[in-house]
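Example record used in the benchmark description.
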Amino acid sequence: MDNESEEIEEEIEEEEEELEEGQEEDLGWPDNYTTRTMGHEIRTKGGKWYYEDGEPHEVFKHRPCAFCGATKSDGYLPDRCLGEIPNIIGACCGHGRVEDSYLILEDETSIEGEAVWEYLDKHFPEKYKKRINFYLHKKNSLKKE
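Model output (structure tokens):
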């Protein structure tokens, strides 16, 4: 790893530590604000985030994807469930919800919803065959790839 990469890695670790420390405090979110992380609904209560089952949501300690079971891993991929995708700088598989899927191409063009799966079908049909069949054609159930 070169010096620049090491410096970036150190900065990321410092930011993660600061966020972890900040998670202990009331972050000022209104109660019952909801969103999703890795396909799991989370909501605020007392300025902190909680999963639907009441367990606290901790920054950088994510549950596996609620849809396919993929876990967050080391490294910085556009999307943990989809893995590395050529020419893509940001992505989300939607974790079982087509409307939540998106891709961000290197030129910063955004593709959303069903168009994500059409793009992957056109460019990477074999790599994402099971997901494409599920999302676009509703064929079979999706098993962990």
